[in-house]
Design goal:
- The complex is a heterodimer.
- By secondary structure, chain A is an alpha/beta fold.
- Chain A has a single domain (5-245), classed as Alpha-Beta Barrel (TIM Barrel), CATH 3.20.20.70.
- Chain A is built from 10 helices and 11 strands.
- In chain A, a hairpin with a 2-residue loop joins strand 6 and strand 7 (137-142).
- Chain B has 6 helices and 14 strands.
- Chain B has helices spanning 13-21, 32-37, 49-58, 61-70, 80-83, 189-200; strands at 2-5, 26-29, 40-43, 75-78, 86-89, 95-96, 101-107, 120-125, 127-128, 143-148, 150-153, 159-164, 168-175, 178-181.
- Chain B is globular.
- The chains are: A alpha/beta, B alpha/beta.
């Protein structure tokens, strides 16, 4: 039986995880490799490394981290942040990423999606979309959710999937940071129009929010979160035990 | 030594890392001499079957891999590398495979309920059909990581494990010394490493 995936996202800047709390047994909470190992041992089904570095030196540190992580942790690793060209795919795939997430880069150049999918396969192209309600429809935002592109999110996602995106990460700006639960309405709208897996992101404040997500929308294949895992508010192991108790299939 | 066959398809970095992690002496190569000398062969693969088989032929690996497998050397195909072991694939047309295991590769979509996502992506559990040395150390029901839209059919005779996704999908096959996993052992955590370890411990056996 296929299981629902729980995916922690690590924001990395200049080779360090930017936020975090002290987990038991963890020497350096800001060391991405150590944190990745910790999450993997707790039952994380995949990991996302998000590079928020702007400098060239930071990029180098980031790829060093990828290499170290991929040498030690054998679960799927997705990389996002600063992916603008097929050469960026090459750079991170060669260092151990399994999937690459595109966002603003694909908005600037939509041809990036088919070009990357043709070269590396759809399984490796994740379209990450930051969306927000504007005048009764969902708009795509870029640059970390700061700029309204005016594009319709559902149309953009449909384009992405038709041109080779193998997975969608939908981050609702409306619920992100509010910690009142995932944006079920927006997720439902997206899940209805695509056949590829949809990952819910933005809004998780408790383990119960994941239960509600998978019970209300059984078609959603994964839940992604950052701060609730980093700050130790929700432990992945306890979350998965709760999901199993609620009758939702997870890998334990 | 384990030779991971490099025919220009996909990302071999994590496979190499996982083999290193289990202490295997592995190299990524398309050198006929090295492949011939190797004790074990791994045939990786991602993307479309047609492209993979084309590259396998262009790099001269098609006939070589076939000969080596027929010599009795343990060989493991992973994901599209597993699919290449079969007679045919119906992915975007009709493509001839290595024909080391009888069966056809066809779209999952035709066999599962419409509401399920394609690709079949994520962690799914293994159900055993018959014993295989690859899984001796792995409890039934263990989870492994899949990502694929096509899978092998009409290969009941050589199927050793299936995974349920609206229908039983072929998860692993074995015919003598030739093994295939539709899932990615190199991405399946400790379970995956254990499967790779079992493969690396295999001895030569006639097909």
């Amino acid at each position: 039986m296929i299981t629902k995936r729980i995916i922690p996202c690590l924001d990395v800047k200049n080779g360090r995880v930017v936020k975090g709390t002290n987990f038991e047994g963890l020497k350096d909470v800001n060391d991405p490799v150590e944190l990745a190992g910790y999450y993997s041992s707790c039952g994380a089904d995949e990991l996302v490394f998000y590079d928020i570095t702007a400098s060239h030196e930071g990029r180098k540190l980031f790829t060093d981290i990828l290499v170290s992580t991929a040498s030690k942790i054998f679960i799927p690793l997705t990389v996002g942040g600063g992916i603008n060209t097929v050469a960026d795919f090459e750079r991170v795939l060669g260092c151990g990423a399994d999937k690459v997430s595109v966002n603003s880069g694909a908005i600037r150049d939509p041809q990036l999606i088919p070009d990357a999918a043709n070269k590396y396969g759809s399984q490796c192209v994740v379209l990450s979309v930051d969306a927000k309600r504007v005048d009764g429809s969902y708009h795509v935002f870029r640059n970390g959710g700061r700029i309204d592109t005016g594009m319709d999110a559902l149309e953009w996602i449909r384009y992405g999937v038709e041109h080779g995106a193998g997975e969608i990460v939908l981050n609702s700006i409306d619920t992100d940071g509010v910690k009142q639960g995932f944006d079920l309405e927006m997720l439902e709208a997206v899940n209805r129009i695509v056949k590829v897996p949809v990952i819910a992101s933005g809004g998780a404040g408790s383990a119960e929010d994941f239960v509600t997500l998978f019970k209300t929308l059984p078609g959603i294949s994964a839940g992604l979160a950052a701060s609730i895992f980093h700050y130790g508010e929700v432990s992945i192991k306890e979350l998965k035990e709760l999901l199993q108790k609620e009758g939702i299939a997870v890998r334990l | 030594m384990i030779a991971v066959i490099d025919y220009g398809v996909g990302n071999l970095f994590s496979l190499k890392c996982s083999l290193t992690a289990i202490g295997a002496d592995a190299c990524i190569t398309r050198d006929a001499g090295v492949i011939h000398e190797a004790d074990h062969l791994i045939l990786p693969g991602v993307g479309a079957f047609g492209d993979a088989v084309k590259k396998l032929r262009e790099t001269g690996m098609f006939d070589l891999v076939k000969q080596e497998a027929q010599s009795g050397k343990p060989m493991l195909g992973i994901c599209v590398g597993m699919q290449l072991l079969f007679d045919w694939s119906l992915e975007f047309g009709e493509h001839e495979g290595l024909g080391l295991i009888h069966g056809t590769v066809d779209a999952i979509e035709k066999r599962i309920p419409q509401d399920l996502d394609i690709p079949h992506m994520g962690w799914n559990s293994l159900s055993y059909v018959k014993p295989s040395p690859l899984f001796t150390d792995i409890p039934e029901g263990s989870f492994v990581y899949f990502v694929h839209s096509y899978s092998a059919v009409d290969c009941e005779e050589d199927t050793v494990a299936v995974s349920e996704y609206g229908a039983p999908l072929t998860a692993a096959v074995q015919k003598g010394n030739v093994f295939g996993t539709q899932f990615h052992p190199e991405k399946s955590g400790d379970i995956g490493l254990s499967i790779l370890r079992s493969f690396c411990a295999l001895k030569e056996e006639p097909l």
